[in-house]
Amino acid sequence: MANETDSPTAPRRPFYLVLTIITMWLIGMHSVAEGLFAIDVVRNPATVPGTTTLQYKDIEEAMKGALVLATAKHGRIAMPLGIGELILGGLLVMLSVRALFARRASTSFAIQVLVANILFVIVDYVVSEPLRVSIVNTIVGSGLDELPDFVPEQQRDEMQYLRWWWIFRIQLAIKLAALALSAFAFTRPKVREFLSPTEPHPDEEF
Question: Is 180 within 8 Å of 195 (Cβ atoms)?
Answer without folding.
Answer: no
